[in-house]
Task: structure prediction
Amino acid sequence: MDTGLQPGMQLSAAERMEIGDDSAHSVTRTVTWPAYTYDAEGNMQTTDESAFDMRDQYTVTCFYATDQYLLTSYPYHCVQVNLIDTTLVAWAEDTDEDGRQFDGFLGMETCINLKVEKRPAATAATSRAYNVDVVRVTSDELIEGVRYPQDEIFAGETRFMTINFPASGYWAAEQNPLNLQDPFTKPYCVTPQDGEECAFTMCFRGVDSDSLDSPNPEYTSTVRCYIIIVYNKVLTFEDGDSASAEDVSSLVSGDHGYSVSVWVRVNNLQTPGNQTIVAFGSSRSVPSAVGPPDAGLPVLSSIFWTADSVDSGAGSFGYYDDTIGSNFTKPVFSVLQWHCVTVTVTADGEGKLYVDGGLASFDSAESIDETITQSVTFHTKARLDNEVWYAAGDSAMASPNYYGTMTLGGNFRGTLDEVRVWNKALTAAEVDTNIYTRAPTMNVDGLVALLTMTSQTSAPMPILSRAAMNNNLPYTGMTPCTLGLSQQVVGPTAGGCVIRVEALGVSEFSPKVSCKFGDRVVRGTVDGDAVLCESPGVMAPGYTPVLLSNDGATFTDPVQVGKRVDYLFMESSFYGDGSDGSGVDIDGVCAPMLQREAEGERAVTFGGWFCPDCGPPLADE
Result:
């Protein structure tokens, strides 16, 4: 440990301090330590170049006090001095460009590459390791002279003007205090979860952690901001488009039956006949002792749509296989809207087709709608192709060549999303639960395949081959995100005001788009990237969160999306400035009183809330 003054340190003369009655016994001395170096002759001289600074980076200097009798006051007072290079923390060249926008998807990791450095160059030789780091910048953290989302890049974009981080965001690396790194790479990653399909404006800055508590901004980098927008992909089918997932059939043993569900949006009523949505077939070729090989049935299970008429704007969903033919619902389902269609078949062949739910009485407590459901019962001998159904012990029969096929589309015109397959027959209650479940867990409750229409692949999830167009489009099962209010942000407690709510993930093809003010739910109308909501009446004054839903059941969670959008309800009141004629006439108020007087009742009671001199002063005439 070093003690005493270090080379170059200067100690000023003692000065008396004026501290009340004790001024005669109090003194102060100041220690200064300018940066120094040595010239060619070995003489010490000051310098303002950090590269030539000869002071030790870490040192301890101790002091003691004496009086005129040379009596020492113990203990020593020691000060540790840590020198911090005034070189700015800077973003490295390979850091993601400021303002970059990333596309994210549910359950898929998206990372922002953040890298800071304090050395002049990453390869510069130095004897010092700087404790540089990257930290998040929040909306309530004001740093003078930096750019925020509401400036420049995101100007005019109401939905991006608030910094918000998802609840699931995380750092992919952390600085090791025992092995300081400079430059330091610290990616920030987001793997969106259910309820986090939103737009996230995230800002960061590089810091010198040794001076993190210093108000001097020279120890921090500039602020960089990025946007991650979480989208949803669907398959859109036009003339002859199709897609397949060849390995799905092999995942269904059939011991407990099977179930298939799909979200469907039919685009038009012009295509005649049955339009196949999902179909399971056979690809086997089993040798036969007599006749041609057994090729299996072309259609072992399928869901289809058929139009009623162009004028009705509706149609039917149905189930078909080659053993029993077609089974239809009533033609009551509208085109251009999302519907959840589910088929369940037990191990004994008892089947049921459900559209938009399993139990007619099932509705979320939050919903302002009554769900209309349809179901069709059937019995079939058909099973999905799987080696379980072939002769036991015959390895040839267990060949993957004999597995079945799964095809999406073919002659269907419309949009599909969230195809799910279970290795069991779902109950009616489980069918309803599935509708309100955005992100089910694989291999839980029999779920063996989940086709999300993205590039995400995880065993045993099959790879979906794409022959159809892949678009970004929200569907009813998603939870939309409230981003902001683009126009009116305050209104009367009596309600009745139409509010434009900026949103992401709202489906214009969902019949139950809803807005929620506090605990009050009202109908919403999709208008481009926003939802028009009429504020409800009889609300308590104050700020109320505005939430959105596609299904009338699951609403935006401000905690998950990292932002809360409020609407301010205020009491309506009349202000009179005291001038002549500043009052108001309310016609008809006295009419009931006159009627009561005619009936012999003359008692009258009236009152109100009044606030004298609450308004601005009367203007001088």
